[in-house]
Structures are given as C-alpha cells and as structure tokens.
Amino acid sequence: MGEPIATTDVIVVRPSGESIDLCIRVFQPFADAQNATCGVELTGLFDRVHNIHGEDTFQALALALQFVRNILDGEESNGSVIQIADTDGTAPFAWRDCWFSEHRDR
Q: Is residue 61 a part of any domain in this protein?
C-alpha cells in the first residue's frame, strides 16, 4: 500500500465514556486496468485497511475522504464526541468545519 499521504489523530469519546484513540490514514490512490483504489486506515475502530474504489484516482480519493466523513458522522449520530488528540479534551472538535466545509469562491 505504501506510505500514507494524509494522517491525523483524533479521540472518539463514546456515550459510555469509552475513549478511543483513532488514527486516520489515507493512502495514495493507484490505478490498475479496471479502476482505481485508495486505501483508508482507521486504527482504533477497525483492524484493516479499507480499499475504496473509483473510476479514476481522483474519484477514489474523493470517495475515501467521504468514507472517513461517513464513519465520523456515524460515531456522532450514536452520541460520540470527536476531539483533537493533542488538546486537553475539554471541547469537541468541529471536524466538519475544518475538513469538510464547503468552499465558495467570492
């Protein structure tokens, strides 16, 4: 799979009080004769790399990032709070605004 092209660490605090150190890694997409694949690793929640497929490497990368968003959305829907790993943990992290906000040209 190679080296990740993007990595971040967050903490998922579940309603039960369980705290999960989550390391998110997105790997460089690659193409083969059929389609393209981008690996996503969510260490702390899953014990494997998820291979996300697209028509080309751009779509594979876009879908991989959407996969990460869906996982974090699911955690929050279940009552979890997402926090930045290197903070004191007193406030939730506005990850949608930081990572997935809509860009508008002005």
A: yes
Q: What is the pLDDT of residues 22-40, one digit of tens each?
A: 999 999 999 999 999 999 9
Q: Is 105 a member of any domain? A: no
Tokens 């971040």 locate to 8
**Count of structural domains within the chain:** 1
Please give the distance of CA 58 from its chain centroid, rounded to a whole number.
16
* Tally of helices (H runs) and strands (E runs) in the chain: 2, 6
Question: pLDDT for 53-95, tens place per residue?
Answer: 999 999 999 999 999 999 999 999 999 988 887 666 556 677 7
Does residue 104 lie in a domain region?
A: no
Cα 71 to Cα 75: distance, rounded to the nearest angstrom: 6
Rounded to two decimals, the pTM is 0.86
Domain that holds residue 22: 4-99
CA distance 71 to 67: 6
